[in-house]
């Protein structure tokens, strides 16, 4: 059966709207016999149940997830694309248009993860509605962003889309975070098993993916980018003039990714 084309211009399987993720239900075993009802008991070691009505945070269900297919999003200025096309996404590179403030750059230089400063990695968001990305497209207010970011129109921004499997190829120690990589309370996961566990928890929690980052301590080649998202058709035509001939990412106009947050 042929795969229907995504109406938003994304590759099959990359659009959360046309091809939503299917969450597998955990396998539940059927008891061989009916268990006798147990009587709740309390002791000095076990506190009595809370009858105040307050909810206790539930643990994420043991569903199976494919870490490698998790989509990643890197936001940059269109004027930075020539360098990315030529050399890939390079850790610590000085972009033509720097959207991050000097304070943000300094914090990421001072914070180490897996023996490397955060600034020595290529950072991706784990959601197209990531908190920082929404901040940027909504006016770039706050100390995180540079004056150049505040002067940038949404039409001058691009979203580079890839997957964990694509950006991790040949890389030993990628890092998944549950928040800003330079944050003091952020937790980190290194290795496939630890990242799968954290990713399961982040997907289970409401808004869990919005602050998460995926860090790659190596050059991410331009060939690892599957889709380039843009705000409008003029931006698409401008981008096509920059792309080399031959194998290039799919170019998609998807305005919702570039709209400011609603008040």
TrEMBL record:
Regions crossing the membrane: 209-231
Q: Locate the residues binding NAD(+).
A: 74-76, 83, 108
- Composition skew (Polar residues), residue ranges: 29-45
Q: Which GO terms describe its molecular function?
A: DNA binding; glycosyltransferase activity; nucleotidyltransferase activity
A Pfam family this chain is assigned to = DarT
Per the database record, which ranges form the DarT domain?
70-259
Q: Which reaction does it catalyse?
A: a thymidine in DNA + NAD(+) = an N-(ADP-alpha-D-ribosyl)-thymidine in DNA + nicotinamide + H(+)
Q: Which PROSITE patterns does its entry note?
A: DART
Looking at the keywords, is Acetylation present? Answer: no
The yes or no answer to whether the keyword DNA-binding is present is yes
- Spell out the catalytic residues: 108 (proton acceptor), 213
What ranges does the record give for the region Disordered, renumbered to this chain?
Answer: 27-58
Instruction: Enumerate the UniProt keywords alphabetically.
Output: DNA-binding, Glycosyltransferase, Membrane, Nucleotidyltransferase, Toxin-antitoxin system, Transferase, Transmembrane, Transmembrane helix
The UniProt entry's sequence similarity note says: Belongs to the DarT ADP-ribosyltransferase family.
Record protein name field: DarT domain-containing protein
């Amino acid at each position: 059966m042929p795969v229907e084309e995504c109406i938003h211009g994304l590759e099959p399987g990359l659009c959360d709207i046309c091809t939503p993720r299917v969450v597998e239900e955990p396998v539940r075993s059927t008891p061989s016999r009916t268990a006798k009802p147990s009587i709740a008991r309390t002791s000095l070691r076990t506190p009595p149940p809370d009858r105040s009505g307050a909810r206790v945070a539930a643990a994420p269900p043991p569903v199976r997830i494919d870490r490698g297919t998790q989509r990643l999003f890197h936001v940059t200025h269109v004027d930075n694309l020539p360098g990315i096309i030529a050399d890939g996404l390079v850790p610590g590179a000085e972009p033509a248009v720097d959207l991050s403030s000097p304070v943000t750059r300094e914090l990421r230089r001072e914070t180490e993860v897996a023996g490397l400063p955060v600034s020595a990695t290529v950072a991706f968001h784990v959601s197209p509605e990531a908190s920082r990305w929404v901040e940027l497209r909504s006016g770039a207010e706050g100390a995180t962003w540079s004056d150049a970011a505040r002067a940038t129109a949404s039409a001058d921004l691009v979203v580079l889309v890839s997957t964990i499997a694509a950006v991790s190829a040949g890389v030993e120690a990628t890092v998944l975070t549950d928040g800003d990589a330079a944050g003091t309370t952020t937790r980190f996961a290194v290795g496939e098993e630890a990242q799968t566990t954290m990713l399961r928890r982040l997907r289970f929690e409401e808004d869990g993916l919005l602050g998460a980052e995926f860090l790659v301590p190596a050059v991410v080649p331009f060939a690892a980018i599957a889709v380039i998202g843009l705000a409008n058709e003029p931006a698409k035509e401008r981008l096509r003039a920059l792309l080399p001939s031959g194998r290039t990412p799919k170019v998609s106009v998807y305005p919702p990714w570039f709209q400011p947050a609603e008040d």
